[in-house]
Amino acid sequence: MGSIGTESPKVEVATIDVTATKGLIQNGHVYLDVRTVEEFEKGHVDAEKIINIPYMFNTPQGRVKNQEFLKEVSSACKKEDHIIVGCQSGVRSLYATADLLVQGYKDVNNMGGGYLDWIKNEFPVKAPPKVKNDL
């Protein structure tokens, strides 16, 4: 089915939509948000079990991969946990999901469309309160 890679192992990443994700996180799946802390703090998926571990960091030179990503995930999740990986639009989460599968995580899915799709569907979010200007 998949191609055989000589440089790096190839894995099949399962991508599910935001509606399927919503159902799974309501049934106890862990939601792993791989966006930056700044993105996460502006608003994120409302989930009981949610973890924010950035897959990439913003630097003056552009985005760079978080070299501690797999170590940080392994300290927060077991390889048997049911995990859904999400980001802003579905790109970083795709790479993060592949990395986790290569590391031996058994049940990891990528949330296609990311947080942008989640908002578009008007699913519950947690965001800081809007500041009102009463001037």
UniProtKB/TrEMBL annotation:
Q: InterPro entries from the entry? A: Rhodanese-like_dom, Rhodanese-like_dom_sf, STR17/STR18/HARC1-like
In its UniProt entry, what is this protein called?
Answer: Rhodanese domain-containing protein
Q: Where do the Rhodanese domain residues begin and end?
A: 25-127
Q: Which organism is it from?
A: Stylosanthes scabra
Coiled coil located at which positions?
A: none
**Pfam families linked to this entry:** Rhodanese
Note the CDD domains from the entry.
Answer: RHOD
